[in-house]
């Protein structure tokens, strides 16, 4: 089969959606013809990469969100001639809204099928993708998302397929030595309000001698790093960017992993990466985290700093 992924920032960022696309494409390419349409430069991957040049990077959080979706529209329209010319059996749009609508038009012209993954989570964005995109298959990442998707789009075929990680990449046999003090709490996250990194900093501040390493970047970077430096003097460490293939080193150097995201978090691939690294996990006690982590971690009311 011919499969085309559309993801604007593959080759630019290494967040959850970009990692998901790259990992899945690498596995599918052994039996299928796979192309990833992206704005980033080509990397060393076995699948074909079609680069749409001239697309600036813009975060999709806060007031930037509307401009981000204009960029997605521009990116998708630029990719359209290539998609029409190439044709495919399956078209997998990742960026939502106008992109899924354009893919519907391609489906009418080229008679392909559309698969949409529920990476945005329960709420407006995936609701738009389901109702406007009308995919042939919608992939829910958790049972809660499965029930919700079936309710709002009863005529759409919905499948439950959770995210996964390659265990071999994260299971290191030797202890990793880094410059960070121990004991060490690690969090890997885009620095966005709904990730609630501020709660984690405040909780660690109550634990004398415990250090905190935050890896990630985002619009709330200045606010969060100032808070970390203020509440955790000489115990707060921050790295904005780490290549994904280097992340096992940092998981292996930590003692605990935590990410206190709101329940709107669709999945959280980093929880799986931490558990694959044999790292204890502390996470919110919501339905999605109960499904993802289960008895493999400690689930609590993260908004209560004394829980």
Automatic annotation (TrEMBL):
Keywords: Transferase. It comes from the Bacteria. Residues 16-168 form the Glycosyltransferase subfamily 4-like N-terminal domain. Pfam families: Glyco_transf_4 (PF13439), Glycos_transf_1 (PF00534). Residues 177-285 form the Glycosyl transferase family domain. SUPFAM superfamilies: UDP-Glycosyltransferase/glycogen phosphorylase (SSF53756). One of its GO terms (molecular function) is hexosyltransferase activity. The keyword Transferase applies. This is Glycosyl transferase, group 1.
